[in-house]
C-alpha cells in the first residue's frame, strides 16, 4: 500500500508544480501587456512633447523675428527629430 501513496504524492507535486508554472506565465503575460501599453505611452509622449514645445517656440519666433523662412516649420522638424531620438534611446534602454 505504500507504493500508491508515493505515486499519489508524486503526481500531486507534479500537478502543483505545473499549475504554479502556468499561473506564473499568465501573470507575466499580463505584466508584459501592461508594460507594452506603458511603453507605447512613453514613446508617444517622448515624441509629442518636444515636437509641441518646439513648434510653439517656432510660432513665437515667427511673430517676433520674421525671416524669409518659417521658424515654425523649422522648429517642428527639429522637435520631431529630437523626439524620435529620445524615444529611440528610451526603447533601447528599456529593451536591455
Automatic annotation (TrEMBL):
The keyword Repressor does not apply. The keyword Membrane applies. Keywords: Membrane, Transmembrane, Transmembrane helix. It comes from the Bacteria. InterPro entries: ATPase_gene1, ATPase_put. The chain crosses the membrane at residues 34-57, 69-91. Signal peptide: none annotated. NCBIfam families: ATPase_gene1. This is ATP synthase subunit.
